[in-house]
Design brief:
With 288 residues, the chain is α/β, with parallel strands linked by helices. Helix content is 44%, strand content 22%. It has 2 domains: 65 residues; 204 residues, Vaccinia Virus protein VP39 (Rossmann fold, 3-Layer(aba) Sandwich), CATH 3.40.50. A 7-stranded mixed β-sheet has the order 5-4-3-6-9-11-10, with helices on both faces. Strands 1-2 form a two-stranded antiparallel sheet. A hairpin with a 5-residue loop joins strand 10 and strand 11. It is elongated. The structure holds glutamine. The site of glutamine has 8 residues, from loops.
Length: 288
């Protein structure tokens, strides 16, 4: 089959779901990834054809896209902060809001390691490892440790550290349980993007997220929505140095509650920030 004919099939089957531009970009992501054929290649060689062995693979991707299965899970990779990341159904697909959190953390702590040797950072609920690994890429003076409850996610995160050639230490643990002794060193920075979506917000979620991304990484009980933040704050009281930083990605509807929670726990220099969509999305506090 000619690639240009296959492209027409993609448009016919998928434009109503995604829109023409997105379908074009999916098509070329697949042809580049599977067959090393770019948009330019097809423009210059309009009669490029698929072999019979290539055909089933791309047709399978088409049928998955029809069910709104995320392209990142089909390709098993994505980009975060300009770096390549492997993703599977055991990890969330990293969000652009989380890139904004990474920028905030790196701008706050860059330079601090000069007076302080290496900075110790812990990422709690690392998933694909995107926060810890990107920060380790940007800040060579960082000693990053990343924790997750999911063994499957940690397999992916470890691969991502290798792919990105950074040295991050990974630990399997549940932050809701106690961990005295697990982190003997005092930490300079704790960062976390824990689960924070309430059942009542499920109806706002897109089916591609709801049906495919790991619920373990997304959802909390309506009546205990700050459960992870509370546990991490208790952990920070034990393991964060005085003047150490705590950064969270947060539920956009719980900004004021998060501010109050950090205040109650005597954190200072509390700052709530919005993401580029204008939603309360991240918060910082300093331990005193
Ligand atoms: N922002 C993500 C979403 O809306 C949720 C991330 C999280 O729960 N930590 O899908």
């Amino acid at each position: 089959m000619l690639l240009k004919d296959l492209k027409q099939i993609f448009h016919k089957e998928l434009d109503a779901i995604y829109g023409e531009d997105e379908v074009r970009s999916f098509f070329f992501m697949l042809t580049e990834n599977y067959f090393n054929v770019s948009r330019l290649d097809l423009a210059m060689q309009p009669n490029l054809a698929l072999t019979t062995s290539e055909h089933p693979k791309i047709m399978e991707a088409l049928s998955l896209l029809k069910t709104e299965f995320p392209i990142q899970y089909i390709l098993k990779e994505t980009e975060f902060y300009g770096f390549p990341f492997k993703v599977t159904k055991s990890t969330l697909i990293p969000r652009s809001e989380t890139e904004e959190l990474v920028t905030w953390v790196s701008e706050t702590i860059k330079g601090l390691e000069i007076s302080n040797n290496k900075l110790n950072l812990l990422d709690i609920g690392t998933g694909s490892g995107c926060i810890a690994i990107s920060l380790a890429k940007i800040l060579p003076g960082l000693k990053a440790v990343a924790l997750d409850v999911s063994k499957e996610a940690l397999v992916v995160a470890k691969e991502n550290a290798v792919i990105n050639k950074v040295d991050v230490q990974f630990v399997q643990a549940n932050i809701l349980e106690t961990h005295s002794g697990l982190f003997p060193e005092t930490l300079d920075v704790i960062v976390s993007n824990p689960p924070y979506v309430r059942e009542l917000e499920k109806k706002e979620m897109k089916p591609n997220v709801l049906n495919n991304e790991p619920h373990l990484a997304l959802f909390v009980d309506d009546d205990n929505a700050l459960q992870f933040y509370k546990a991490i704050i208790e952990f920070a009281k034990l393991h964060l140095k005085d003047n150490g930083f705590l950064f969270f990605e947060i539920n956009e509807y719980l900004g004021q509650e998060m501010k109050a929670l950090l205040q109650e726990n005597n954190f200072t220099d509390i700052e709530l920030r919005k993401d580029i969509f204008g939603r309360d999305r991240m918060i910082k506090g300093v331990k005193k």
